[in-house]
Amino acid sequence: MASNNNKHFIVKYLECKHNYVARSNGYELDGCGEFCPTSAPETLESFICVACRCHRNFHRKVEVEVEDGVESPILSINHPSYGQM
Ligand SMILES: [Zn+2]
């Protein structure tokens, strides 16, 4: 693979997959759409999402290609097309 530009991958953590009703055959998520760290990196708290209070491991991990510090659109996210109501 040629590396003649500044593309590289960063890891992002998207929607929370924590199932709150796993014991009752159901499936209910908290609706958290993206992991938001609570505090500065390198602390235990930074692995807890500020929105849903779940550990980062519950969030879907994706690799995002970035070029020159600009994030590419994430194509793998399933979301309705906003602005087309
Ligand atoms: Zn969350």
UniProtKB/TrEMBL annotation:
PROSITE patterns: ZF_HD_DIMER (PS51523). The keyword Repeat does not apply. It comes from the Eukaryota. InterPro entries: ZF_HD_homeobox_Cys/His_dimer (IPR006456). Residues 13-62 form the ZF-HD dimerization-type domain. GO terms for molecular function: DNA-binding transcription factor activity; transcription cis-regulatory region binding; zinc ion binding. Keywords: Metal-binding, Zinc, Zinc-finger. Coiled coil: none annotated. One of its GO terms (cellular component) is nucleus. GO terms for biological process: regulation of developmental process. This is ZF-HD dimerization-type domain-containing protein.
